[in-house]
Amino acid sequence: MSTPIEQNLSGGSLRQPEAEIYDRGYRHYDGPREGRRHAIQALIVYSIKRGLGIKKRWTAKIIPILIYAFAFFPVLIIIGIRAFVGDAAAGGLNYQTLYSAISVIMVVFAAATAPEMLCDDRRQKVLPLYFSRAISRGDYLLAKIGGLGILMGTVALLPAFILFLGTTFLAKSPVSYFFNHIADLLRIIAAGTLLAFLFASIGLLIAGFTERKSIAAAVYIGAVLLVAGFAGALFHAINAGWHRYFVLADVGSVSDGLTGWIFGIPLDQGSMTAEANLNGAWYLITVAVVVVACAAVMYRQYLREE
Q: 98 and 163 in contact (C-beta within 8 Å)?
């Protein structure tokens, strides 16, 4: 009895399946190789789009829209009051007042946006795909910090710029006021940039340890409130001279102290920051230490990723 192979060779009924070739239009890529720098820039742009809910369902755009609305509301109130009662009567409404209100909004913004940039990548297991291409783990984190820093900067910088422009046009001599206070633009850039990266780095640090966006957001807000309350309790409970350094554990107080120092505006009497009476350099050092420490911990965490 012959085998199926022998039957096939002798012209039997057993036939091999016929192969078919489909033209899918695949072509070899011979264009420019952008490399690592372009990959980082593309990841920054992609992260910003994710944070703003672009190319996602309309419900993902609600929170960014509300945050921007609340961020610009205080500056419109300040300009409106100055327009009606005059700059002298509204002298207490200044950059310090604006940043005190914005710092609360920035906490919410970072809590909502940082998880959007990190948690989905971990949950969908796409990190190995990222790290197999032109970028390293450090590049990935740099792009995420840059993306969130830019978004946070829009909240920290744009309202202050609007306040500067509004105050300039409300002045008796707008041209003279602009040139006499042009240094305020540099102060706005310095304060806004430092605060943006302060809140962004903390948010990304927390989001880097979980795949659940809701958990990351809740932990961020809860940690800020808990640490601030604990620091305030210790500040008022301890009578030793070094108790004033507990103010550096409260990001809200750090924001007030930093902006007050940069703009040269006296702090509100009775506040914990005013009672601490620390040199402004302490707040600058605190921001630098927090940003570097968060980046180092995130980098160590992502070294474990396969």
A: yes
